[in-house]
Amino acid sequence: MGRRSALIIVDVQNDFCEGGSLAVAGGAAVAQAISAHVDEHGGDYDAVVATADWHVDPGDHFSTAPDFVDTWPVHCVAEGGGAAFHPNLTPALRAVQAVFRKGEHAAAYSGFEGRSDDAEQASLATWLTDRGISRVDVVGIATDHCVRATALDAQREGFETTVLLGLTAGVARQTTEAALTQLEQAGVRLSGQPVVAD
Ligand code: VGL
Ligand code: ZN
């Protein structure tokens, strides 16, 4: 099957965009840019998937005194409006073949910890491998957390992994820079320029 590829859209949900409970600056613009990317390049991918942070009772992932590194305000509560995909992502969702939800009962930053919303309930690694995918582009929110963890897992699972930085938004400059260094050291390709809050 050659070098089949997939686009992984990470956590482009209302709570991670402006007006959400854990708003990342640039989130709504990233949602729109991802829809434009899918419109222009969606046909280049053999699959397009999305991940979603989906919390029921994630323990100390939620805090009333969050440090915004390991603990966070309440966000992406399962079935709630904050967990819904941002409206700017709606055009791209037409191309999305499966959604991988994660984090029901504990923090789960990587989409590879999720399960598909279809009958298979497959892990992301299995779902991609079953379709002969060997290359992935990773985009979404947040560069320094769930994009980072998803891209590191993708590379670790053997996928040739690229993060399209212009289609990501980060929580903070310092953690985003650290994430980019860590990604490069892991062999993940970085393409474009990051959008960072501060
Ligand atoms: C995320 C913080 C908490 C993310 C998820 O999607 O990057 N960040 N939960
Ligand atoms: Zn979360």
From TrEMBL:
Coiled coil segments of this chain: none
Pathway annotation from the record: Cofactor biosynthesis; nicotinate biosynthesis; nicotinate from nicotinamide: step 1/1
Gene3D superfamilies xrefs: Isochorismatase-like
UniProt entry tagged with the keyword Metal-binding: yes
Domain Isochorismatase-like: start-end pairs: 5-190
Matching InterPro entries: Isochorismatase-like_dom, Isochorismatase-like_sf, Isochorismatase_Nicotinamidase
EC annotation from Swiss-Prot or TrEMBL: 3.5.1.19
Record keywords, A-Z: Hydrolase, Metal-binding, Pyridine nucleotide biosynthesis
PANTHER family from the UniProt entry: LD05707P, PYRAZINAMIDASE/NICOTINAMIDASE
Protein family: Belongs to the isochorismatase family.
Protein name from the UniProt record: nicotinamidase
Source organism (scientific name): Intrasporangium calvum
Higher taxonomy: Bacteria, Bacillati, Actinomycetota, Actinomycetes, Micrococcales
